[in-house]
Design brief:
With 134 residues, the chain is mostly helical. Helix content is 35%, strand content 7%. Helix 1 packs across helix 4. The two termini are 25 Å apart.
């Protein structure tokens, strides 16, 4: 969240890990310092990205949105937490039903981190098998 944080550097680091699952990349503190499990779930839900997508398969626009949203949601998270209204803003984390599709959300411990992950199979697209070009 610091002003010294550079989105371009985060993009460069992400592009250097094309085979990494996006659910692990968001929790990588060398890329997104301070991003935790709640932010991971909510950012992926906002962007309609399946957590088992690989970083290298994300279209360039989605990759840029990921970097932007991770930072933006971190600021919102802090604001909501200070106001004691954080849980009221969760769309996916700990939820059972997708607010967009009105179907059951999936829940599993995914990736190398094995952190609890919530996602919708219908509206969160899975990207895999490609490489993002700079």
């Amino acid at each position: 969240m610091a002003d010294e944080w550079k989105p371009a550097l985060a993009l460069k680091k992400l592009r250097s890990m094309p085979d990494t699952l996006v659910c692990d990349a968001l929790l990588d503190q060398t890329v997104f310092s301070g991003v935790g499990n709640i932010i991971k779930n909510e950012v992926l839900f906002r962007l309609k990205i399946h957590p088992l997508s690989t970083v290298g398969a994300l279209p360039a626009t989605k990759l840029r949105e990921l970097v932007k949203q991770a930072r933006q949601y971190s600021f919102e998270f802090l604001e909501w937490k200070k106001a004691f209204v954080l849980k009221q803003h969760w769309l996916a984390h700990t939820k059972r039903i997708c607010p967009r599709c009105n179907i059951a959300l999936h829940k599993a411990h995914l990736g190398k981190t094995r952190r609890r992950t919530f996602w919708c199979e219908r509206c969160q697209k899975r990207y895999d098998g490609g490489v993002v070009k700079p």
